[in-house]
Design brief:
The complex is a heterodimer of chains A (307) and B (242).
Chain A lengths: L8 H12 L19 H10 L20 H21 L6 H15 L10 E5 L6 E4 L3 E5 H6 L3 H16 L2 H8 L3 H10 L5 H21 L3 H17 L6 H14 L5 H6 L3 H10 L3 H5 L17
Helix pairs in contact in A: 1-8, 1-9, 3-8, 4-6, 6-10, 6-11, 8-9, 10-13, 11-13
Chain B lengths: L1 H15 L7 H6 L18 H8 L7 H5 L36 E5 L3 E4 L8 E5 L4 E8 L2 E6 L3 E4 L3 E2 L34 H6 L4 H9 L23 H5 L1
Antiparallel strand pairs in B: 1-4, 1-7, 2-3, 4-5, 5-6
Classes of the chains: A mainly alpha (307), B alpha+beta (242).
Chain lengths: 307, 242
């Protein structure tokens, strides 16, 4: 199951050192403020302008990301794969090709409206009745079957996926990994793709996974979640979906919580539904208000859900 | 004496006529659907209240309930708009109790206008100050139905939903649509997913490869899958804020 390839000894040493570093997880205020909607060429301009574009949505003002070179992206994807592997180790992919393809079609359309359309975006439904969704650096996005089935329209699915895509586009998790100086571990994982030494690979993963476990259980800061909500609404609207669908999702999450459905993990890592609604509505410009229209295909999600 | 006898007889006769006057008020405001045959389908069933609700959403009525076939044009009349709310109604003995629309307490986050309909061009019913208490019944797009201080509609951007502070969800009272649980596409034996399961489970890199292989799976749905779905070019809030 776990077949990580070989990792260099230098990289392993740095990983072990990194693992020994304090994993204080509270100071996430320096999250990179990339604009997930800006086209790649616009992002170069952002860098020139420095903090000008680093508005304080969610209260987190920080450094503008440095270049995302191809090497950096590879590292990000490798780290994301390790995070995704942890979720998938706990819950397998749903054996329903039709539903998986459907989620990928919708997800890819929305990701195409983001600032990072060229990432290898892949979307999967996890076979679990729990209600949640996850994003991993590099473009891996997971939605639980419990959440997928809770949704009433394709627009609501788009809202969920838009939120997760925004996390990736903003590099929320990747920035945390970089702050913990675990990039070298990701570098080694990239290199390990062409080699094979499972024992070392496992050791390296174990070193990184301590932080991943903490990140998975604690989530990112509230500001990052609010940011992903706001950005996700715009991304989904630009892909042709109802801008108010996220409100419907949050109402359903609140109701699911009251009904005793399994949303405890979700609310463990996210602000309350009320706080999220209050934040989302702040994003509503007249343009977004005009986009409060159900998409023409809103109902077709039902043919992919259980009846 | 004759007069007294006449009064007694006429009183008894009136009583035997089946409460001719007394129930009139009740029938106009509630359904006698349970009595079926006794209802007069040929009469203009829809009263004023339900007639209005055909054309414009009224407070407490969601878009879904407006389209709901449940009312079926029978004598559900005024209570039809409440069907999408929690239907705890327990009709009994021809005295149906109409479940009140679920409402949640909220506050105006600025000086705001309550409008007669869910439209910015609709007439203003009243204006309320910042921090005014309001009671919301449902949401329809960018509008919340207001139950008090006046019935009408208020924009979502004018409202703050408070947290309950006791772990329960205030927002749940507003939700509509079906709930999760019990009908998931998940396999019958699928386990729940919590933080512990993720942390203690062994990472599955083979499954990551399966996930990556799904990358282009959506293409199988065809080039026309998003036909007629218009794209937009809305800039994000950061840019709008600058």
């Amino acid at each position: 199951m776990n077949s990580l390839p070989k990792i260099s000894s230098v990289g392993l040493l740095s990983l072990l050192l990194a693992a020994g570093a304090p994993l204080a997880f509270a100071q996430f205020g320096d999250l990179t403020k990339k604009n997930p909607l800006a086209k790649p060429e616009e992002q170069k301009e952002e860098k020139k302008d420095g903090d000008k574009s680093a508005a304080n949505i969610g209260g987190a003002i920080g450094l503008v990301s440095t270049a995302t070179s191809s090497q950096s992206v590879e590292e990000e994807i490798a780290a994301g794969d390790a995070v995704a592997a942890m979720y998938l180790g706990a819950s397998p992919l749903l054996k329903n090709k039709k539903a998986q393809s459907y989620v990928n079609a919708v997800g890819k359309r929305i990701a195409g409206k983001s600032s990072r359309p060229d990432l290898p975006w892949a979307f999967g439904i996890l076979d679990t009745p729990s209600i949640n969704a996850f994003a991993a650096p590099g473009g891996k996005v997971l939605v639980t079957a419990g959440l997928f089935d809770l949704l009433e329209t394709e627009d609501e699915l788009a809202a969920v996926l838009g939120h997760e895509i925004a996390h990736v586009a903003r590099e929320h998790h990747w920035q945390l990994i970089k702050q913990q100086k675990l990039v070298s571990g990701a570098t080694d994982m990239v290199a390990a793709n062409t080699e094979s030494d499972n024992a070392m690979a496992n050791a390296a993963f174990d070193a990184m996974s301590d932080f991943f476990k903490q990140m998975i259980n604690s989530g990112i800061d509230k500001g990052g979640e609010y940011e992903a909500d706001s950005d996700g609404v715009v991304l989904a609207a630009n892909a042709g979906y109802d801008s108010t669908a996220m409100l419907g999702v949050l109402e359903k999450l609140a109701n699911a919580s009251e009904s005793g459905d399994d949303v405890s993990f979700l609310f463990q890592t996210h602000p309350s539904a009320e706080d999220r609604v209050n934040n989302v509505v702040l994003a509503f410009t007249p343009e977004l208000e005009n986009a409060a229209i159900l998409s023409k295909n809103s109902g077709r999600i039902k043919s992919h859900q259980s009846q | 004496m004759k007069y007294l006898f006449f009064v007694i007889v006429s009183t008894l006769l009136l009583a035997g006529c089946g409460q001719s006057d007394e129930p009139a008020v009740a029938e106009t405001q509630e359904t006698s659907d349970a009595n079926g045959a006794s209802a007069e389908p040929s009469a203009p069933v829809a009263d004023g209240a339900s007639g209005d609700s055909e054309t414009t959403a009224t407070p407490g009525q969601t878009a879904m309930s407006a389209d709901s076939p449940a009312a079926q044009g029978d004598t559900q009349s005024a209570s039809a708009s409440d069907e999408s709310a929690e239907s705890t109604s327990t009709e009994s003995n021809g005295g149906p109790s109409v479940a009140p629309a679920a409402t949640i307490a909220a506050k105006a986050n600025k000086k705001a206008v309550i409008r007669a309909e869910a439209s910015s061009s609709s007439e203003a019913v009243t204006s309320i100050d910042k921090n005014s208490d309001i009671s919301l019944g449902s949401r329809n797009g960018i509008w919340y139905a207001v139950q008090s201080p006046s019935e009408g509609w208020i924009k979502i951007t004018d409202v703050t939903i408070p947290s309950s502070g006791n772990g329960s969800s205030v927002l749940a009272g507003l939700a509509s649509g079906r709930l999760g649980g019990g009908n998931s596409v998940a396999s019958s034996g699928a386990r729940g997913l919590d933080g512990d399961a993720v942390v203690t489970g062994a990472p599955d890199f083979e499954a990551v490869k399966e996930l990556a292989a799904l990358q282009d799976s959506g293409d199988s749905l065809g080039a026309d899958f998003f036909k007629e779905q218009d794209e937009r070019e809305i800039t994000n809030t950061e840019e709008n804020a600058n």
